[in-house]
Amino acid sequence: MTTTTANPDVATSARERAAELARVRADFPLLTRQVNGHDLVYLDWGATSQKPECVIDAEQDFYLTANAAVHRGAHTLAAEATELFEDARRVVADFVGADDDEIVWTSNATAAINLVAYAMSNATAGRGGVAAQRFALASGDEIVVSELEHHANLVPWQELAARTGAVIRPLPATDEGRLDVGALETVVGERTRLVAVTHASNVTGAVTDVAAVVDRAHAVGALVVLDACQSVPHLGVDLHALDVDFAAFSGHKMLGPTGIGVLYGRRALLEALPPVTTGGSMVEVVTMTEATYLPPPQRFEAGTQMVAQTVGLRAAAQFLSDLGMDAVAAHEQELTAHLLAGIAQVPHVRVLGPTQAVDRLGVVAFEVDGVHPHDVGQVLDAAGVAVRVGHHCAQPIHRRLGVASSTRASVGVATTTAELDVFLDALAGVRAYFGLATS
């Protein structure tokens, strides 16, 4: 970071921030490598984040010192593994403003959302008893899903509708790529049983007015399911304060390992929700004709668990907590403003989503006039810049914004403005590479 001011306090602050960012980057070993003869510029944090050494070490240390199955063994290793497993739950719960018994481990965020959808169809089939009937759907009931959703927060609800006779009602997006809050009153009505929205779009970067969604949904007795995959790594998230009923996020996007996701659910809702995956570790009493189930969260954690991954996720949550999510958000907002301002100076490039760094994250999808996104990505990769190309598992919002796919640059805790400048220089040369006009 640089400063042009003569104010010594500001200059010192800028130097301190630059030194802190250098310390953060030093924790990410992969960021030191080269790609195609260039220093790597990793701008694909929205797809999967790089991992600090503390996360890598935590997983390795578990395998080296405490590897055992959790909850079932009486020996020392099993007890140690169980303590690490449950301590991870406590740390992650605290990180997102939840209670530890409201956190269910899943293999990823997609599995977390599918868990709720299939549990609701089990309730519709009569499983779970009287308490579970609050989740049962009838023909003509409505599931409202925003136009901004990742397919993981859309397709499971389509399948639930197909199994139960419910119908999907779209909640539209604006031309700017934000949720159309004004449509809540007309779309969310008496037949609405569930509203599924993203906290922040993985295409437009727009941050959802969750309070408006929750107020309207709860006013008609509907549940709110929040996709928090993009928000949890980049904003301070307090799920209790947001007042949502369920939320899902993934480890690999928040500096943690792959193979671990989180389902948050209000305690009372998890207690009433019937299980989906059944077998070992989630039962109380089993006979040859029936079984009773443990209370949540264990009710939803059948079989051998991803213990090493939870330990790694704990380390990631602690790493972010130590940085301070306010500081993370402030750093990334500066990056977002720099990125948007820079792209605005490149002719023939259109940002999909808000063009100002207000209520939006550093997830910036764009189209280059006359060049396919995959070709854009290859030109950037040749310069050592890693971005995402395609529809980002979000075809409806691309269709709404008039494109089939896009190129996406996304920032993270270790991104620098110098890296963004390398990206912007490479982006400015894309059309010229294909012999197209550059002005």
TrEMBL record:
A Pfam cross-reference name: Aminotran_5
InterPro entries, A to Z: Aminotrans_V_dom (IPR000192), Aminotrans_V_PyrdxlP_BS (IPR020578), Cys_dSase_SufS (IPR010970), PyrdxlP-dep_Trfase (IPR015424), PyrdxlP-dep_Trfase_major (IPR015421), PyrdxlP-dep_Trfase_small (IPR015422)
Biological processes annotated in GO: cysteine metabolic process
Catalytic reaction equation(s): (sulfur carrier)-H + L-cysteine = (sulfur carrier)-SH + L-alanine
GO molecular function: cysteine desulfurase activity; pyridoxal phosphate binding
Key words, A-Z: Pyridoxal phosphate, Transferase
EC number: 2.8.1.7
Cofactor(s), by name: pyridoxal 5'-phosphate
SUPFAM superfamilies, A to Z: PLP-dependent transferases
Domain Aminotransferase class V per the UniProt entry, residue ranges: 41-423
Annotated PANTHER family: CYSTEINE DESULFURASE, CYSTEINE DESULFURASE 1, CHLOROPLASTIC
Function: Catalyzes the removal of elemental sulfur and selenium atoms from L-cysteine, L-cystine, L-selenocysteine, and L-selenocystine to produce L-alanine.
Family annotation (NCBIfam families): sufS
Record family assignment: Belongs to the class-V pyridoxal-phosphate-dependent aminotransferase family. Csd subfamily.
This protein's name: Cysteine desulfurase
Taxonomic classification: Bacteria, Bacillati, Actinomycetota, Actinomycetes, Micrococcales
